[in-house]
């Protein structure tokens, strides 16, 4: 028998696929699924961005190869955004790399920075690419519980002390996917101090920095004095401008780390389609009204979700940021676990969520709910959930009988 390929052996089956298969089967049977499972923005990309794409695509030269680290106009726009939003000055030529979405940027950073066996400190629960980008690059993950930012911060020194060889990279990600937690600038000051103390490079993922629901916008780690000496930040236009499928992200900060990423990318791609990059620059350089409108839509959905699910019997904390809610399993389903709960919820109630265990072992007992359905659909989901919770004994009984028979 042909052995499994080395890197594939290091990747477990994608947990989301189990729920996705059920969704596909039910949809094939004509069942209407209210899908909160994937963080896929459902609102249209703002018109002025689409118009710029169409205009640029009409140029006969638009279909030629672009630049792997991004066209200069886009890198300047990214630097300008950081200057306006965070007060951080970046050199567009040396400290800004345009990427094919933040996921690609993160994975290729891992390839650029990791030697086989390098130890990486990673929060748990976390978005899967944070760990598996480094695993695919040959790294070893030192998971640190991140039930709260304070818990994660307090566990970093302990992780350094008990890791051999010493860790080389520290990952932070706020606002967090999946937990929706965010941090203030003092947290980042502590991160930079710890990184300097333990000789760590820092990768900060702030893809959800524009999706927040009070008057205090989430900060950037690069606002901390000296952070650029040891850190880069990964960011994205996907959620900010409802451009997820356009695949435009950025890595900014430390010049040496950006150069390493640029070198890796030079072997792998020629950058995004040029009209997409021109339109992305128009998004970053344009008025912020569309960002505020998108943020307002997510806030209204968040409030509807929390209120309607509470009436249904499921208390979900209001997330302070991101496009997700991170919810404990209803008491009736705590023993079932997040995977079985998610399967039963979609099968019995037509409501899809992401099981918390998909984000790491410390995500067990939770589910992630994406704010990607409109308010009418959210209320319908709550009505379905109410019936689901009321019939929990019967539903769990059938599930246990099915598993016993297998």
Give Rg in angstroms.
22 Å
As a percent range, the share of helical residues equals 40-55%
**Through-space gap between termini:** 27 Å
Can you write the helix and strand succession as a string?
A: HHEHHEHEHEHEHEEEHHHEHEEEHH
Count of individual helical segments: 14
Total number of beta strands: 12
Share in β-strands: 5-15%
* Shape, per Cα inertia axes: globular
Question: At the first level of CATH, what is the class of the largest domain?
Answer: Alpha Beta
- Given helix and strand content, the structural type is alpha/beta
CATH level 4 superfamily of the largest domain: Type I PLP-dependent aspartate aminotransferase-like (Major domain)
The CATH architecture of the largest domain can be given as 3-Layer(aba) Sandwich
Q: Describe the sheet with the most strands.
A: 7 strands, mixed
Average per-residue pLDDT, rounded, comes to: 94
List low-confidence stretches: none
Tally of separate domains: 2
CATH topology of the largest domain: Aspartate Aminotransferase, domain 2
Q: Output the strand order for the largest sheet.
A: 2-8-7-6-5-3-4
